[in-house]
Prior knowledge:
The chain contains 13 helices and two strands, in the order H-H-H-H-H-E-E-H-H-H-H-H-H-H-H.
Amino acid sequence: MILLYVMLSQSLTLTAGYSGLISLAHAGFYGIGAYTSAILSVNYNLPFLIILPIAMLISGIIAVFVSVIALRTVDDYFIIITLGIQVVAFSIMNNWMDLTNGPLGIPGIPSISILGLEFSSKISFLILALTLTAIIFYVLRNITKSPFGRILIALSEDEIFTKSLGKKVYQAKVASFTIGAMCAAIPGVLYAHYISYIDPTSFTVDESIFILSIVIIGGMRNLWGSAIAAAVLVILPEALRFVGMPSNIAANMRQIIYGLALVIMMFKYSKGFMSKNYVGQENK
Length: 284
């Protein structure tokens, strides 16, 4: 699960961190990958190596359509539009009974098989997830260090100045949003096969906010920071289960402690885990 959130947060880092496009629709693209995989594997018995590119293609096409509309606005308005897109995506998953089975979800999703090799055990699935995480990291790292990546940084800092240099700002935004959405479909496909059952509750606005929180806490333009933040935010709630508390207050206290930990982390690392500029150092 940590690796799935690493992939999700790093894909959003390209969109939100480098392009400055704060999106609340990322869980929607995550869900598109999961539902595409579930439908094609359960209903049509397609193999993983065919399902994965199809899920990425569908997510990419929808992302292009969404970005062409959403990028006509800026800043807060863009965030609200992506929030609306996330709500629409959840509503489709929850109400299109013939396709998604609505709130009942899709059970019986088979394990992943690649060229006859079954990834049914947790160790084998971990190796597959780790491999795909490394590939996504390598691709995104090369993108961010390329001339295209420098255009994204420039437009997020000063869009008008970047336009004055003759750069195609609008096309760069659409490309970054689409690449991020296509990468988000990959952990969606893995999640569906790992859990073997999906329903709309896994792809809500809350999930988008959680993914965005990982990006912010890890550092808006830091792929390694997103990986560390994903590990911390996924492990911390599980670690709190081992803290001895009375059963009648345990659930609420865990939520309170988790929330306080997030507040403390943001005070301590105001620009992300991997940033050298802590609040205390800035004050000095």
